[in-house]
Every structure is written in C-alpha cells, then in structure tokens.
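Troubleshooting log. The previous run stalled partway through. Resubmitting the same two chains, unchanged.
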Amino acid sequence: MLTRDQAAEIFSRIRKYAAADELECLFYGGRSALTRFANNTIHQNMAEENYGVSVRSAFGGRTARATTNKFDDASLQEVVSASESLARVQEPDPDLLPIPSSEEAQGRYSPPSNGAAAPEGNKLPSRHFEETSNLTPAQRADAVGQVVAIAQKRNLTAAGIFANSENIEGIFNSRGLSRWHRQTSAEVSITMLAGDSSGWQKANSPDIAKLSPAHLAQIAAEKAAKSAAPREIAPGKYTVILEPAAVLDAVGFAFYDFGGLAILDQRSFLNNRIGSKLFGENISIWDDVSHPQQSGSPFDGEGMRRSRVQLVEQGVVKRLVYSRASAARMKQSGHAAKVGLVETTGHGFPIPNEIGEAPMNVVFEPPQEPKTVEQMIASTERGILVTRLWYIREVDPYEKIVTGMTRDGTFLIEGGKLVCGLRNFRFNQSLIEMLSQVEAMSTPVRTSGEESLDMVVPAMKIRDFNFTEVTKF
Amino acid sequence: MVDSTSAMKELAGWALNIANQRGATYADVRVIDERSRALATKNGKIGNASDSRSQGFNIRVLMDGAWGFASSAELERSSVEATAGRAADIAKASARVKQSDVRLAPEKPVRAEWTTPYRIDPFSISIEQNLALLETIDRELRSVQGVTLAETNMNFRREEQWFFSSEGSDIHQTKYTSGAGYVAYSFAGNEIQKRSYPNSFGGQWQNKGYELLDELKLVENARRIGEEAVALHSAEQCPQGVFDIILESSQLGLQIHESIGHPIELDRVLGMEANFAGTSFLTLEKLRTLKYGSELVNVVADAREEHGPGLGTFAFDDEGVPAQSTPIISNGLFTGYLSSRETASLIGLERSGGTLRAESWNRLPIIRMTNISILPGETPLSLEQLIASTDQAILFQTNRSWSIDDKRYNFQFGTEIGWEIKNGKRIRMLKNPSYSGITTEFWNSMDAICSRDEWTLWGTPNCGKGQPQQVMGTGHGASPARFRRVKVGSAYS
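Second attempt completed without errors. Output:
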C-alpha cells in the first residue's frame, strides 16, 4: 500500500517541479479483488493494484488538474506541466478561492448523529480491518462454495460477487494541509435464480467479520423459492413495503440536489422549497460521515473536514451541504436568505468540477416507533413487498419523478400475509410524494444497492406507490 | 513511462512465462497507455480542465479449467512476475467452484498494427482554441433570455494497447475518441426544462480525431437549442394514450442500445450477468426462430472500420479476435448474438464474434456492444418526407430518461422535446414526452425508416456493465423511423 510518508515524499518532488502560485495533490488508489460467480461457477476472478496522484495548479483565479499513476520524476514533471498548461490559458475566475490552510480545513467539529461521545481527537473510528484486507482468493472461493451449496440444495442457481479492498485517500497542499485516510471494504451480493423467479441480497462493510455470505444466500434462496410461479396483477397505486435496498436506490436520486451549487444553478428540486414542509413529519435525514454504520473519509476534495449536517427535520428541508466556493457564492446571492444556514460543510468535490458538492454519507433518523418488515406486512390488508428496484432514472427533475422496475423478489400481500410472487412492475413515482406517504419505517441499517451510494436507511411502508406497467416475468 | 513496442513485448514475455510455468493452458497480456483530456464550461466559467494519463498491464490466465486475472501499474520485472503469479493463484482458487472446464473457440494467432483513422490529432489542438470554442457556444446559449444554466463539454482520449497471447498473437492498436456537446437549462415556475446538442449525455462521440468537432456545427445550433429550452415551458404537455410515433436518429440509437444491444449479449443470455446487469429474454431457442421486428428491421453488430468511426470500431477485440460484422436481425428475424471465445464455445459457434472489451488495463474484458446499428431504408426517404407521409403522430427528439427491465422486455424512454404531427406537418411543440412498450412488440410495429442520408453513427459513451462496473463506449447507427400504435405519456400518469 502507498503510505502517507511515501505520498509526502512524492508531493515534495512535485513541489520542486511546480511553478504555479498554489499547488494541491490528491492521492488515491489501493488494492482490490473481486470473485464473481454465476451458474454455480466462479467465472470471473480478478485483482488489481493502482495508485495515482492528481495535481491541481492555480495561478490567480485560474486552475486545472492533471493525473498520473506513475511516480517517477519524468512522469511527475509531465503531470505538473500538463496541469499548469491547462490552467495558464484560462480567463481568471474571480470566484476561485485560494487553497485552504490546514487550520481552515479543520473547521468546526459536529458530534456524531448516534448520540455517542466524540471520538478522541475528533477522529473517525478506524475503518481499516486487517482481516478484510488479508482475505485471499481461496477464502473468497470457499465462501462462494458455501453459497453454491445452498443454491444446489434448493435446486437453484447462484450468481453474485464476493469482493474485498483496501484503499487510501490523501491530500497535500502548498499551504501545509495534509490529510490521509485509509479504509477497507468487503462486499457480498447474491442472486438466486429459479425457473421463473429470483431472490437477491447484498451487504457491505469495512469489516469482513460483519458479513455472512451464507446468511445472505439463505435469504436470497428463500425469496426465489417463495416468488416462484409469479402472478400478474394490474398496475396501479398500491401500498408498498420497500426493503432498505429499494428505499436506498430510489431516494438516492434526491441527494445530489442538496448541494448549494445545485440551488445556484437552479437545477435542484429544492429551488424555492427550502424551509417548506416537503416530506412527511416522520422524515428526518442527516449527512454524517462519523455515523458508526457509515464509511468514507472525513475530509472533502479540498481537504475540508466533513461536518455533520441535518438536511431534513420532520419533513422540512433545513440545510444544504457546501463546498467552500459554493458557500461563498451563496452568501453573495439572492438565495442566501431562503436556504437556511450557509457555511462550508466539507462536502466539495475536487476542483475544478461542475457539480460542486453533495451529501455522501446519508443517514435517516430512526423512527419513534420502528416496525420490522414482518410487522409492516402483518399490518397490510393488501399491498406489495419489494426487495429491490432496478434501472432507476429521473423522469422529471423538479417534481423528482423517477422511473424504474422492481426486481428479484416482488410479492403480493393480502390479509397481512405474503400470498405469492408477482410479475415485476414499472413505477413512475415522485420522490417528494413518496416521502410524504410513509406510514411506517424500520430501524435504519447500512444498506447497499446498485444505483446509489451506501446509506443508512430504513425499510418503508408507503401508501399509493405508483406502478404504471407490468412486465413479462 | 515505458513506451516502446519491444519493451512491451519483453514485459508480456515475463508474465506469459510465469503463466506457462504455473501450468496455464492459455494466457494473454494487455499493456495499455491511455491519455485523456476533459474540458467544460458552465455559465461562462471553466467547469472542468483536466488531463489524465494511466499506464498498466494485466494478465488473464486459464488454469485448471478456470480463469484468473490480475493487473498492476508497476511494470518492473519483479512486479510483472508477481502479478502473473497472483493471476495463477486466483485461477487456482476459481477452479474450486466450477461445474465444467472453460473452453475457448479456436482463433488463429495474429500479428498486427492498427490505428483509428483520423485527420487531426485532438491533442494537437491548443487548449486556448478548445476553450474559445466552448466559450463561444456558452455565450450563444446564454444570450437567450430564460436560459438559466449553460454547460458545454469537450473530451478526447487516446488509448494505445499491446496484446500478446500464449497462442502467439501480437497486436498493437491505437484508438482515438473525440466527443463534444452542450446543454441549455431553463428553470421557471415549477419546471426545469433542458435541450442538448447534438445529443444528451455529452453530445456526439466517435472514434476519430478533432475533425469530428468541425462536422458537428456546434456554434450554428446553439441559439436554437437555447430557444427551444425556454420555449418548452409554454409547450403543451405530451398527451397520454396510444399514438404512432417517430423517433429521430439519436433516440432510435439509444432504443437499439437498450432493447437490442443488451439482450443479444451472450453472457447475459447464459446467466453470467444475472447478479447485476441482468439476463435476457433472448434464450437460445429463439435464435433464427424469433420474429424480433418487422420486415424493415435489419440490425448488424459491426466493429469493422468500413462501418464508420463508431465507439465500437476497432481492428481486434481484447482477446485478439478480428473485428467482424454479425447480422443480428435480418428482415425482422433474430439471427445472431454478441459472443466471445468462451461463450461461442458454450453454444457451439465455430468462432467468437469478436466483442470482448475492457474499460482499461485494470479490468477484465467482457462482452460489449460494438456498433449495433439499424440499416437505413433502401428507398430514399428523408425525415421531412416521413413526416409529410404521416397523418397523426408524435416525433420524439433527444433522450432525457431511459429505463428497461433486467430481461430487456419492458422499456420506457423520455425525450427532451416532442412535436405533434398532424396531416403531414409538425403543428406544435410538446413537453415532457415519453413512450413505453415491450421490446418485440415495439420493433414489430416499425413501418418506415429513413434512408442513408438521414443515418448517423451515434456514440453512447456511458454504457455500464460488469462487476466491478466498467464504462464502455458503444456505437449505434440509425435513421429516423416510425412505429405504429405505441403507448405514450405513462411517465406522467
């Protein structure tokens, strides 16, 4: 692994070649491996190791970036030259801020959202686990073997992945800022296929000890078996119970609109809506990198400390997240009085970029009276249980209508019980309406899907969810 | 940076030797040096200005009937040999969970050199000239009252790849990709509308040089695009119901991508992508029996240079198979899949169709679309003539949203703008248009397609597939076409 000391030495060499007024270097990379299986066979199995440095040069209002994965002197000279060449020819941007000092980047500390005491030194608990990074191909294969055995025992076919990685993220700048983060990650995703049905489960964690491929396989197999011979029912508005992965992948489309620049650009569904009650009173949402079930680095693309921010309080959108530049621009704009507290929150992407910032560690606040999925089913006279959503895309950016499909385990509920599997539906659903129609929630859990960043989200029981079509399976 | 062919060959030799010593029955090595540039503006300021260079290699080994793959950016001998050893260890682990041994369809080894045909090296154009063009477009867009956000972009990529296999292939390919486009947004009342040119999601992309940008007439169209974005606020909402529809060529290109290109991928058909991208309704018994579309539907998967400068154009795929043209739909009949050496062997094809590609040096190659194109009509027919011959329909232009189920049956597309056609004329603009359907029903409803003059080879630069996910560029040639009795407007129902 690239160490902080090695990165510091590379940064010092880059400084020697740099002529820019200011310099910032991002380091990234790591080691990763992924075992992929399908048809009860490991069919793809890979490992990679790669590290890079991304050099940002700034000359009085002009800035650009160049990246290389080679650290020899010639390559570093080349990357500095490329960065400076791109920057020098630009028209100066009066809004471009000087790079932050180490003191500025420390920012204010916000306590974690779980009510726990602040970790010593205001640092995150370690997200690096040796057992995760040391996982071998043979260990992954043996775990896949267990999954396949569960499939074969029930006459099913298994497909999925078992992956582990160890990554670094670092930033150094010419004003003395130096930040470093390393973390591990393990991930398991399993699809169980039957003749005319399927089931799915996915989980990830920095700590491999928290994952059980066999347990996930059992649940996925049960879903595949229970949804066999799916019935077709007419599309329409139904009470649905979305399992956490389905909630995650749907609501994930909302959060890029919670950045200050999205408001300034007038491309956010929150334009003219901040401070108003947009969602149900039972919806409160935070961005909190320090949450024990979250992951990721505690600093943003400029090295600024990520603050804990309450985005939504009892259905009211309270605050946005900001990079330094967006916060500065927002304070000068006509929106400033209407968007709540405006301050740098440490959510900026590396500069230059077109997005500005976004919440990357979303955490839903636990409901006052959490219900399990089983309790939600038991309380539903007629409804639909959804395991997972798929191919979600935005249909309307201001009403926040998204479309997509159900997948891998969709069930009819009648009289408080699962009755049978259903053919999959297409939905066209406003996320604003969806989060206004939540009747019950489970305790939020770390959840991984395919369309959104990992979040801590609950299962939700939602009324009048809008299914518009049904497909052939 | 290592930069000579002989050095690459030596490097590959170190890796292949280790694979051979460990007992691999097959191995291949790809060494890649890639360079990219991204420039963008946003409301008169620089949105992006970045260069990137990445170099590395991988080795794929077949051992004990199973695959192993490892990659590294370190090109010294010790690292190369260690990486090859890692690939062998991984293959050995893979062999612990298998139902049968992997077999590869035969392929003759090749020694070849190939470079994307181009007139102007995109990296030879000064940054000042590039930014000046984007800034001119940006000014044109924002000169329209009501445009609240203007974004422009320009992207170039050069990928040099050396491929060596244990069977003796030695292939050196250099590919150039260029792309450019822009978008105007207008926020008013309770509505965000946008218009993009020449296409959404980054504009038009092809495997060619800077000459692409000269062909696109970017500045000439900017004001119209800005005006249309604003005018959409006053347009009527697209109606709901069953209508005849006409898709302009970029939207038809994406329709091909989603409802033909993905379901014909043999890895999906065989269940290899079941956990993420999904499977396919095109099960094996449907080959040469399924009436996929109407008689007018003729689709090819063509990676050859003569098909045009698509994002799926190359001389050899990433396991050394020559570029080919495969008939996919012939006069409406389903006639072919996208295949690799492994999947071709599994279904008894004599040879791979040559579609295995990887995003970069650190990803293993998987089946990807090449240029999946619908052939133009043989009878001369322009878009205006098609409209003139249509009593009542809705014309859909420029994709805004796209979604399809994991077997590729049910789809829904939205476009940025629609036009109501009545008695052979465009009579009014429509906002928020969408249409949906079932793949085979839709393609069987096609009753007209414009001829070669209206045919464009579009680039889709953002196709995601695989685990870890890989993003790949694919090409889609299309002319505008008409479809009868399609469900319209359900996105807003």
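Takeaways: Chain A has a mean pLDDT of 96. The longest strand of chain A covers residues 41-59.
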